[in-house]
Amino acid sequence: MREDDWMQTWAWLRRSQAGKMLTPLLSILAALAMGVAAFAIYVVIQKGEQLQVVQRNLQLAESENSDLKSRIETVQQAKARLEEDLTGAQRSFAESQEELANSLQAQETLTRSIEDREREITRLTKDLDQAKSESSKVSSQIGKLQSERDEAKRQVAELERAKNDLEAKLMATDPSTVELDRVLVSGGASGTEAGGGMVMPISATPSAAGQVVVINREYDFVVMNLGKNHGVAVGQEFQIARGNEVLGRVKVEKVYDELSAAAILPDSKKSSIREGDTVRAL
Length: 282
Known about the structure:
Layout: H1 3-15, H2 17-173, E1 192-194, E2 197-199, E3 209-216, E4 221-224, E5 237-242, E6 245-255, E7 260-264, E8 278-281
């Protein structure tokens, strides 16, 4: 209803009797209407302001939502990168574990190899020490053998000198005497070779006694200062003694006028016999 219509209706009511009665009521209704309209306007204004606030909040929320979406996308991208990095790290970790297992196995193998080498070194060290000990023993034995060889050479030289002296004495006493060479123990010897003929053995007198003048330890024989002139015969046995100690027995193999060569029998104390020991016929 337009304002002109309201004005006409208001004029009609004042002119009519009923209008006079309704005027206060209408005034009240108009006041109420105006109050309601004012309230409605107020409400509309408030609603408009609220709507504006809501719109602004909505815009702000949309902006925040957009920003949040952007952040979410950024986070998701970061998450994807982190997942990729995590996958790579897991692969690297698995590879590292495999390398560690291989390294541990290699270390264990190396440790066993080192232990084997140490045991081998220990064994070789023991062998070396034993070889050094044996070498020392061998060196000692070599030195002993060299000393024995030198002693043997010295004894041979002395024996050669003694043989030469005896040969000179024999040549001086009997020109037909031969040199004293190696004497072999022979059970078939039955005579004495002297002057180019065979002489039958004769027995020495029981009291025949003499001395050892030469010892040949290489061929195990002695030379006694008893010979054909003392009744000594080839095959005769003599006892060698020093004081009351019996050192052994010898068997005559060659006989000369003043000397005889006799082989030392096996049951004798060969190493104890010396020049100057007494010999007696058995």
